[in-house]
C-alpha cells in the first residue's frame, strides 16, 4: 500500500529524542508566561514550567501527515509561522513520542545549534547561535511517530470489513496530546490557523475539521488537502482515515451535516443527525452567532477513550454514544445519544469559538456544554423532563464535593499531567449546576443575552472565568463576580440549617462534609423558599447566619397542621438543607400528601441520605423518609430513591448484618408496587420515562434478591436464548434478565454464565455487547469473578470497555477483585497507561470497602504506585472508605433502628 512520495523528506527513523540524549545542565530560571525571554541563558531554564513562554507564538501551521495503516506508523512535516515578539535565541514548544529529524529543523534559514528535549515536560527547546529576528518567521521540521494503541494523539482503531480486520487512523488531542502528532504550541491560548494535508490509500475516506480543498491521486495513494481553518486551539484539530458510509442533512442556514459510520451502518446515524441539525439551529439562535465552520461531520470510532470529543467541525464519538438502532438500542441509550450530541455541538461555540484561556478554566467548556445540552434536549424532547434528570448530575457533584479531597471548580494546574483528572464531576456537574443556579437567579432572558454578548466579545479568542462574570455583571447590573467567586474559587458547598423561631425562620450556613466535620467555607447563597410553589421567596444569604420572615400564608401553623416550607426550591441552588424537627416533620407530611414537585422530591431524599451518611441524622429517620416514597411513579425521583436504596442496602451488610435481610425486604416493599404496575412488558404508546423506569426498578429488585423478579428474568432469558427476537425480552429489559441469570451462577453451575458469554460473542458490537459485559462479574463465586475480570485482558474486550466490566463487581466479591487488581497491577498500568482509564480501576474497586484497616492497606499498596493522573481519584476513593467506616459506627449505635425497620415492615 503506502509508497514513499516526494514531499516526505524524513530520514530513516532515528532514536527518539529523550532527555538522556541531550544535555540538561544549567539552573532552572523561571520563565513565567509573558515574561521577556532572556537573550542568553541556557535551554535548561525551560524545564519544569507549567506553561510555555510567550516570546514566540504560532500563527499558522502547515501540516502534512502520512499514516501507514499497515505498519502503524506515520511521518509528518510541519511548517509553523511563528511571531517572535521579544528578543530571544530560543524557540520552545511541545512534542511527545515523536522522532524529530534533527537535520531538518530550520527557522528561516537558521539551523539550531542546540536541541534539548525535556521528556518529563514534553518540552522541546531549539537554541540558536544568535538572537532571532523579531517578527514572523517559519519554523520547519520533519519527524515520524507511531500510530499508537492508547487512544490518544494519533492512534489506530480496529474494525471489521468484509470479515477482515482493518485499521483506521484517528486523532484524540484533548487535553494535551496534539504534541503526540506534531510538534506544536500545545496550549489552548495559542490559537492558530491550520492548513492540513494528508497522504492516504486512495480507497479510504480522509476527514478533518475543514472540507476538502482538493484531492490528487497518484496510484494507490491520494493526497487530500483541506481548507485552511479559522483561528483555533491545537486540542481541537482532528483527522480520521478509514472506510465509512454516511447520512447527510442540512441546517436551516444551509450548513451541511454528516454522520459517518462503519460501512453498512449509516441508518444508525439518523437519530444523531436529526439531533445535530436541530442543535446547530438552536445554538445559532441562542448565542445569536452563526455556526463558525462550513460543515459539520460526526463520526463513530470503535476504539475511543472518552464518550465523545468536540473537535471543531469533526466530532468523534464512541459508537454507543452516536449510533441508534431501532431493534437493539434502549430508550436510555437514545437519551444518552441526544445529550452527547447536544453537548459536543454546544462546544462548537462554548469551547471552540470561545476557548478557555488555560485548563484552570476547563469548567467554562465542560460545565457550560453540560448545561447547554440539557437546554437543547429539553427543547427537542420536552416529554423527557430532562431538567429533572439534570439533578442526577447535581447530586453526583454534591457527593464528590462533600469530600475534603475535592477541588475548586477553578483549579490550579501546575503540569500537563494534571489536566486529565479535572475532567470530573466538579468541572462538569458542579460547573453545570452553578450555571443553573446563576441563571435562575438572573432570569433566563437576561442570562441568554449576556451569553450572546460574551460569545461575540471573545469569538476566535480565549476567556477566563472572570471575563464571563464581567460580561454578565455589565449586562445585568447584578454582583455576579462576588456571588460566583464563592462557588468557583473554593471547593465544597454549604448545608443550610433551618430552624423555626417564632414567626421567623433562622438560617445558618456551614460547609458540608461527608465525614461529619464542618469545613471553613462560606458562600453567597441564593436562598429560595416556599410553602407551595406560588409563595416563593428569594434572597442572597451573605452572612453566616440570617433570618427570614415566613410569608403569612405559610405562618398560620398554629391554626392547623398544614404548615410546611421547603428551602432550595427545585434544587436550583448547589447546597443542602437540614431542617429542625418541626420543619422536617412538616416536610414529610407535605411529601406524603404529594405536595412537593418532582425536583423537590429528589432534593429531600438526596439531602437526607447525605446527612445520614455524615451522621447528622439517623438511619432510622432516613428509612422512614424512604418509606414515604412507596408508590412513587416518576422515573427521575425513583432513580434517586434507588441510588439511596443501593447505598443503604450496601452499608447495612457491613453495619448490621443481622438486620440486612429485613432492610432489603423494606426496600423491596418501597419499590415493588410501581415495579408491579409496570411489569416486564412494554405497554403500547408508553412514555420514554416509563420505558426507562421499568429496567431501573426490575434491576433494583433483582439486586435486592427479590425471588419472583429473578425467576421471571431467568425465564425470559431462556426464551431469548432460543429466539433473539422474542418480544418478551426487548432491549430495555435485557440487562435485568442477564443480572437475574447471574444470581444463580457458580463454578459448579456455570451454564448461565456460559450462555451470557455466548450472547456476547454473537452480538454485533455496540450496546448489546456492553449490556452483557457489565453483568459478567456480578456474582460471588471466586472462579467466575476471576474469569470475568481476566476477560479484560483478551482480544474480545476493547480497552475502552474495561471499566464497564469492572462496574459489575458486587460488594460480596470485593476481596476477589482487590486481590486481582493488586496481582495484575503492573500489567494493567502498562495496558491502560492513559490516566483516566487507570483511574477507573481504582474508582470502581476501592470504594467497595468500608473499613479503616482496608483503607490503610490500599493506601500502602499505592504508596509506591501512584501516578499524577489518578492521584486525586485514589485519595477520594480512600476518603469514601473512611466515611463508610464512620457511618457504620453510627448505625451500630442507633438504639431504635431494628424497631423502626420492623415497624415499617409491619412486623410485630
Ligand atoms: N471534551 C470532552 C471529551 C474529553 C474528555 C476529552 C476527557 C479529553 C478528556 C467532551 O466534550 C465530553 O465532555 N465528552 C463527554 C460526553 C458528554 C455527553 C458529557 C464524555 O466523553 O464523557
Ligand atoms: Zn464536553
UniProtKB/TrEMBL annotation:
Recorded superkingdom: Eukaryota
Gene3D superfamilies with a match to the protein in the record: 1.25.50.20, 2.60.40.1910, Neutral Protease Domain 2, tricorn interacting facor f3 domain
All residue ranges annotated as the ERAP1-like C-terminal domain in the record: 564-882
Boundaries of every Aminopeptidase N-like N-terminal domain copy: 58-236
Record-linked SUPFAM superfamilies: Leukotriene A4 hydrolase N-terminal domain, Metalloproteases ('zincins'), catalytic domain
All copies of domain Peptidase M1 membrane alanine aminopeptidase, residue ranges: 271-487
Claim: Zinc is one of the keywords in the record: yes
Binding, Zn(2+): 343, 347, 366
Family that this chain belongs to: Belongs to the peptidase M1 family.
The name this protein goes by in its record: Aminopeptidase
Organism per entry: Brachypodium distachyon (Purple false brome)
Amino acid at each position: 500500500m503506502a509508497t514513499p512520495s516526494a514531499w516526505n523528506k524524513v530520514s530513516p527513523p532515528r532514536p527518539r529524542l529523550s532527555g538522556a540524549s541531550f544535555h540538561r545542565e544549567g539552573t532552572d530560571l523561571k520563565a513565567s508566561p509573558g515574561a521577556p525571554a532572556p537573550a542568553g541563558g541556557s535551554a535548561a531554564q525551560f524545564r519544569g514550567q507549567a506553561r510555555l513562554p510567550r516570546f514566540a507564538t504560532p500563527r499558522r501551521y502547515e501540516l502534512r501527515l502520512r499514516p501507514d495503516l499497515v505498519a502503524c506508523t506515520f511521518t509528518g512535516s510541519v511548517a509553523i509561522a511563528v511571531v517572535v515578539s521579544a528578543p530571544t535565541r530560543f524557540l520552545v514548544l511541545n512534542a511527545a513520542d515523536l522522532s524529530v529529524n534533527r537535520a531538518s529543523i530550520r527557522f528561516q534559514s537558521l539551523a539550531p545549534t542546540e536541541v534539548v528535549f525535556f521528556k518529563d515536560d514534553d518540552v522541546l527547546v531549539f537554541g540558536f547561535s544568535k538572537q532571532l529576528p523579531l517578527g514572523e518567521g517559519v519554523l520547519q521540521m520533519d519527524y515520524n511517530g507511531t500510530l499508537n494503541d492508547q487512544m490518544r494523539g494519533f492512534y489506530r482503531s480496529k474494525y471489521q470489513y468484509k470479515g477482515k480486520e482493518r485499521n483506521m487512523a484517528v486523532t484524540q488531542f484533548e487535553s494535551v496530546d496534539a504534541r503526540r502528532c506534531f510538534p506544536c504550541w500545545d496550549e489552548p491560548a495559542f490559537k492558530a490557523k491550520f492548513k492540513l494535508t494528508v497522504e492516504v490509500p486512495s480507497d479510504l475516506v480522509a476527514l478533518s475539521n475543514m472540507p476538502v480543498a482538493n484531492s490528487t491521486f497518484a496510484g494507490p495513494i491520494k493526497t487530500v488537502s483541506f481548507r485552511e481553518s479559522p483561528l483555533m486551539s491545537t486540542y481541537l484539530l482532528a483527522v480520521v482515515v478509514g472506510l465509512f458510509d454516511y447520512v447527510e442533512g442540512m441546517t436551516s442556514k444551509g450548513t451541511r451535516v454528516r454522520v459517518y459510520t462503519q460501512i453498512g451502518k449509516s441508518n444508525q446515524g439518523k437519530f444523531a443527525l436529526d439531533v445535530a441539525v436541530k442543535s446547530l439551529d438552536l445554538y445559532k439562535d441562542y448565542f445569536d452567532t452563526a455556526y463558525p465552520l462550513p460543515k459539520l461531520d460526526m463520526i463513530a470510532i470503535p476504539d475511543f477513550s472518552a464518550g465523545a470529543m468536540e473537535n471543531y467541525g469533526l466530532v468523534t464519538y464512541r459508537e454507543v454514544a452516536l449510533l441508534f438502532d431501532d431493534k437493539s438500542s434502549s430508550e436510555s441509550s437514545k437519551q444518552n445519544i441526544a445529550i452527547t450530541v447536544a453537548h459536543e455541538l454546544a462546544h462548537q461555540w462554548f469551547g471552540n469559538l470561545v476557548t478557555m484561556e488555560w485548563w484552570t478554566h476547563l469548567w467554562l467548556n465542560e460545565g457550560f456544554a453540560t448545561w447547554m445540552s440539557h437546554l437543547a434536549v429539553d427543547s427537542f424532547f420536552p416529554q423527557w423532563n430532562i431538567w429533572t434528570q439534570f439533578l442526577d448530575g447535581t447530586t453526583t457533584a454534591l457527593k464528590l464535593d462533600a469530600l475534603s479531597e475535592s477541588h475548586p471548580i477553578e483549579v490550579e494546574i501546575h503540569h500537563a499531567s494534571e489536566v486529565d483528572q479535572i475532567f470530573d464531576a466538579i468541572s462538569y456537574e458542579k460547573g453545570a449546576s452553578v450555571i443553573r443556579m446563576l441563571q435562575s437567579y438572573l432570569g433566563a432572558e437576561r442570562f441568554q443575552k449576556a451569553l450572546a454578548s460574551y460569545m461575540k466579545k471573545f469569538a476566535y479568542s480565549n476567556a477566563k472565568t472572570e471575563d464571563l462574570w464581567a460580561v454578565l455583571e455589565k449586562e445585568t447590573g447584578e454582583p455576579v463576580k462576588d456571588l460566583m467567586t464563592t462557588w468557583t474559587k473554593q471547593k465544597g458547598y454549604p448545608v443550610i440549617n433551618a430552624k423555626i423561631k417564632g414567626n421567623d425562620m433562622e438560617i445558618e450556613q456551614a460547609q458540608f462534609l461527608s465525614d461529619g466535620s464542618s469545613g471553613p467555607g462560606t458562600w453567597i447563597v441564593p436562598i429560595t423558599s416556599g410553602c407551595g410553589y406560588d409563595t416563593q421567596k428569594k434572597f442572597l444569604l451573605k452572612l453566616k447566619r440570617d433570618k427570614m420572615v415566613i410569608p403569612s400564608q405559610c405562618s398560620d401553623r398554629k391554626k392547623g397542621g398544614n404548615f410546611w416550607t421547603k428551602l432550595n426550591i427545585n434544587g436550583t441552588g448547589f447546597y443542602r438543607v437540614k431542617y429542625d424537627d418541626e420543619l422536617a416533620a412538616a416536610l414529610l407530611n407535605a411529601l406524603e400528601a404529594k405536595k412537593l414537585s418532582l425536583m423537590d422530591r429528589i432534593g429531600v431524599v438526596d439531602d437526607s441520605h447525605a446527612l445520614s451518611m455524615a451522621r447528622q441524622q439517623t438511619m432510622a429517620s432516613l428509612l422512614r423518609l424512604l418509606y414515604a416514597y412507596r408508590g412513587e411513579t416518576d422515573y427521575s425521583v425513583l432513580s434517586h430513591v434507588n441510588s439511596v436504596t443501593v447505598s443503604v442496602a450496601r452499608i447495612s451488610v457491613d453495619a448490621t448484618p443481622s438486620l440486612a435481610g429485613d432492610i432489603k425486604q423494606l426496600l423491596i416493599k418501597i419499590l415493588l408496587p410501581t415495579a408491579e404496575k409496570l411489569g416486564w412488558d412494554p405497554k403500547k404508546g408508553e412514555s420514554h420515562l416509563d420505558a426507562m423506569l421499568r429496567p431501573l426498578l426490575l434491576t433494583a429488585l433483582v439486586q435486592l434478591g427479590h425471588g419472583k423478579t429473578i425467576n421471571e428474568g431467568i425465564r425470559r432469558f431462556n426464551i431469548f436464548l432460543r429466539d433473539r427476537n422474542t418480544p418478551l425480552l426487548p432491549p430495555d429489559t435485557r440487562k435485568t434478565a442477564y443480572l437475574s441469570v447471574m444470581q444463580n451462577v457458580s463454578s459448579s453451575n456455570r451454564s448461565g454464565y456460559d450462555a451470557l458469554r455466548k450472547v456476547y460473542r454473537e452480538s454485533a458490537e455496540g450496546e448489546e455487547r456492553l449490556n452483557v459485559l457489565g453483568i459478567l462479574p456480578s456474582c460471588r463465586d471466586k472462579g467466575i469473578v476471576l474469569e470475568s475480570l481476566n476477560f479484560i485482558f483478551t482480544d474480545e474486550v476493547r480497552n475502552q470497555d474495561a471499566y464497564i466490566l469492572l462496574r459489575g463487581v458486587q460488594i460480596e466479591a470485593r476481596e476477589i477483585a482487590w486481590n486481582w487488581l493488586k496481582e495484575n497491577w503492573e500489567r494493567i498500568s502498562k495496558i491502560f497507561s492513559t490516566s483516566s482509564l487507570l483511574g477507573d480501576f481504582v474508582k470502581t474497586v476501592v470504594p467497595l470497602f468500608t473499613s479503616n484497616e482496608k483503607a490503610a492497606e490500599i493506601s500502602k499498596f499505592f504508596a509506591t504506585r501512584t501516578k499524577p493522573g489518578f492521584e486525586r481519584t485514589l485519595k477520594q476513593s480512600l476518603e469514601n472508605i473512611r466515611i463508610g467506616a464512620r457511618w457504620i459506627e453510627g448505625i451500630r449505635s442507633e438504639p431504635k433502628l431494628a424497631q423502626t425497620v420492623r415497624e415499617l415492615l409491619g412486623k410485630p
